[in-house]
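Let's practice the habit of predicting before peeking. Look at the sequence and jot down your guess about where helices and strands might fall. Then scroll down.
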Amino acid sequence: MTEHLPAARHVNPLFVLLTASVGCALTVLDTNVVAIVLPTIAREFRASFADVEWVISTYVLCFASLLLPAGAIADRFGRRRVYLIGIASFAIASLLGGLALSAPALYLARALQGISAAFLLAPALAIIGHSFHNAQERNRAWAIWGSIMGLTMVLAPIIGGLIASTLGWRWAFYINLPICVFLAGAVFFLIEVSRDDAARKLDPAGIVFFAASMFGLTWGLINGQAEGWTSWSALGGFIGGGLSAGAFIAVEQAQARPMLDIRLFSSPRFLGAVWAMFAYAAAAQVMASMLPLFLQNGLGQSALQAGFDMLPFALAMLSFPMLEGFWNAVCHRRVS
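Done guessing? Here is the structure:
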């Protein structure tokens, strides 16, 4: 892979890492803060649990469907450009979420936030991968990135509780605006233009089939637990998602430069990483969204109490990346 760098300049790699990591952390902050204020939103809109759950579900549907295509688009059109677009659209979606006067309006804003988060997270991760080439430096960079994500998970529920108990739930969205302004300025001054010169054209069929497969499967999972796993809504999502996944595999195998190289799944290390991320998403991310609802609606806690009671869970998310970085450093010393 070759990178197109129109202007060579020296920027401290740590600043690049922090700038990209803040973009990733913004998606974590938003998800966890919104989870804390969901019961408050439900009370204001007089919505049922099933209704307010779509505040999370619309975000997840759009985010999951577009994360991989967003990475391919960033490689083609430039990572910094797509990152800035993601930041700007995330700020607009956050503003719309804060101004929403009804539950459906909030759903639409959250859908736009999910789309924006995909175009924010994918180029940010690509920027980190592009900036650190040495194996030891890259391991250290990902350990720092993981620590920032963990610290965000520690602080986000408490921030959400403070917002819900003082400023009101709308500030769960407004808080993103100054962060986006600061982050856009940092990206403009610190991140170099980079793209994959070999990515001459997009893979529209792959993008469509991947988005359709993720949308269908996620739709099936959401409606399966809400309406029953044999309901037409759930089965339709699973069938449509499965057929789209099959079409995506067939399309990618016919590509000279596929958006996702299917041969990667023959690598045990890659499969291990995929299963690890699946386990994280199925356990930690679901817990981060659902536990605040249980603490407030089930146990009758205030939003602030729920935020502090999330600390044991969040501290584990902070500590394990640090332990991983320490373990990698020890293993590297033994090898060398």
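How did you do? The CA atoms of residues 58 and 111 lie 5 Å apart.
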